[in-house]
Design goal:
The protein is α+β, with helices and mostly antiparallel strands. The chain contains eight helices and ten strands.
Length: 284
């Protein structure tokens, strides 16, 4: 099964302040007098706008992202009381209109700056707070929770979802890598499975989704990747962000290093997936 491809709105369906104002005014007249302005930093899945000073509007930018709206509206209010940090609070769900084809959400605004740009007073304290949040999330009852699927690009699901894409990538790189070795490592990876009850996974624990206030972790946002599944996907995203940083440091090396680096990365990923599952059991 291939990774879903998001189809963006065409240029005649621009998501801008005018569209948001018209949708809010027609569907939620109690808020029609509030100013609408885009947030300073936009994400990829949604276009986000301030609605007054206390709310924000999130507009999915593609059909694949629109599938997340109802999921967040249903589950975030149920998860919030059981978690030690703030998470987005849905206030209303809008319907298609004005040429915009999907449902959309209004949330309460959460103050804070993203961890990628904010001052963090104590990294150990920050990591502890995040670990406590994730442990609390994983301990919540998963009954009727959403399984990995197109709504979250199968995060928390089986690695075999990406088998065809990975083999295609291996073939495309055959002039630069040891195909047999890489294929062997990949096949060992997809042979591993989570042997324990599924847990809640956020799906996208990245610096941009962690908010900081007064030097401390204060909130976790963007639950579009939410599902009940294998927690190893969490480790994968942490590792990917680390590898991106490391790759920036080694770009000045000669081409000879590329093959060694790629093989090393893949081996680390497989090792990390395996050891992460063991570590999760220790924490639980």
């Amino acid at each position: 099964m291939s990774h879903p491809v998001a189809v963006e709105l065409d240029e005649n369906q621009m998501i801008d302040e005018k569209l948001v104002y018209l949708l809010v005014a027609s569907q939620f007249p109690q808020w029609k007098d509030l100013p609408v302005r885009p947030v300073a930093v936009q994400g990829w899945d949604n276009r986000t706008f301030h609605l007054g000073k206390q709310m924000l509007v999130r507009m999915p930018s593609a059909a694949e992202y629109a599938m997340k709206v109802e999921k967040e509206q249903k589950w975030l209010p149920r998860l919030a009381p059981l978690l030690p940090l703030s998470i987005p609070e849905p206030l209303a769900m809008g319907e298609p209109g004005g040429g915009y084809p999907w449902r959309w959400s209004i949330y309460r605004w959460i103050e804070g700056n993203t961890a990628g740009s904010a001052y963090i007073a104590d990294l150990c304290d920050f990591a502890t707070s995040l670990a406590q949040f994730l442990i609390a999330l994983q301990r919540i009852d998963t009954t009727d929770g959403p399984l990995p699927g197109p709504h979250n690009f199968y995060r928390g699901g089986k690695l075999t979802t990406y088998d065809a894409e990975t083999r295609h990538a291996i073939d495309a790189l055959k002039s630069k890598i040891d195909v047999d070795t890489v294929t062997k490592i990949w096949e060992e990876g997809i042979a591993t499975t989570w042997q324990f009850p599924s847990v809640w996974v956020h799906g996208d624990i990245s610096a941009g989704n962690l908010l900081v206030q007064e030097g401390k972790l204060s909130a976790v946002i963007d639950f579009g990747g939410l599902a009940v599944g294998d927690p190893a996907c969490l480790g994968g995203y942490f590792l990917i962000n680390l590898l991106r940083y490391l790759l920036k440091l080694v770009t000045h090396f000669v081409e000879y290093f590329e093959e060694c680096l790629l093989l090393g990365i893949i081996e680390v990923i497989i090792t990390f997936f395996t050891s992460f599952r063991i570590k999760v059991l220790v924490y639980l």
